[in-house]
Amino acid sequence: MKALGRWLGALALTLLVPVAALAGDIKVGLMCPLTGKWASEGLDMKNIVTLLVDDVNAKGGIKGRKVQLVVEDDAGDPRTAALAAQKLASAGVVAVIGTYGSAVTEASQSILDEAELVQIGTGSTSVRLTEKGLKLFFRTCPRDDEQGRVAQSTLAKFGFKKIAILHDNSAYAKGLADEAKQRILDKKSADIVFFDALVPGERDYSAILTKIKGVKPDAILFTGYYPEAGLLLRQMQEMKWAVPIIGGDATNNTDLVKIAGDAAAGYRFISPIMPADIDTTMAKAFPKAYEATYHSPPSSIWTVLAGDAYH
Description:
Layout: H1 2-16, E1 26-32, H2 39-58, E2 67-73, H3 78-89, E3 95-97, H4 102-114, E4 118-121, E5 137-139, H5 144-157, E6 162-167, H6 171-187, E7 191-197, H7 206-214, E8 219-222, H8 226-238, E9 245-247, H9 255-260, E10 268-269, H10 281-294, H11 301-310
Parallel strand pairs: 1-2, 1-3, 3-4, 4-5, 6-7, 6-8, 8-9, 9-10
Helix pairs in contact: 2-11, 3-4, 5-6
């Protein structure tokens, strides 16, 4: 609380000091995966926050001060994220946005907390991230326990009675799989006929798909990320196996369609809503501004939530 009080006091002082007395840019940190398998997420995070920073600066900045975005690539890797957090902590930023991936964010938390920097996670849904009692950590995304609730109710709504749950052993995917499993058991809404993990990054999932097919599920709940989801869809099509597969929110990415091809037709996933589904002036204006600048829509909701973190 003392650290939070110092930060709020500094913010109040910044707002009260005359413009002439202020010097230098306001530096905002952004951690995102600009390299690695989640690079499309990271690039869009950078694009969105840059767009918002440029807009603020074009209007005169904040109390006459320009905003400077300091970006560090975490590569979607916890060890790299720890180094990125250390760089941002020594760069003079006032707060840090990011990052994507619960385990990646967790690797940066204690470093930024010790530096007394506000951190706002964007695509980091693991429950434990906000149960540590870190007073300067916030996030713009929902937690896995909420998504587990929605997963259970969605599967029940479609009437699926035999569910296979597939994850990838990451902090996010395993956490969501556990939450969904417990919700289904508590509600007694279906039988869980399979619960296991694939190895992320592999190119052939036919063996585990054949194993799941053998237990004859009504549907598969896959709680991993979009690269593996795209491969699963394509390889299920090659097997001529048409059982529905429903993804978690980490499969909300347009690159899934590039990987899966026409096997993505009819694919369903659980996710926070996109700006097009929100009836506010800001939500309506944002996609137009983004497409006018970058000539394509944002790749996923997680990139948009980086913009929410900046705001």
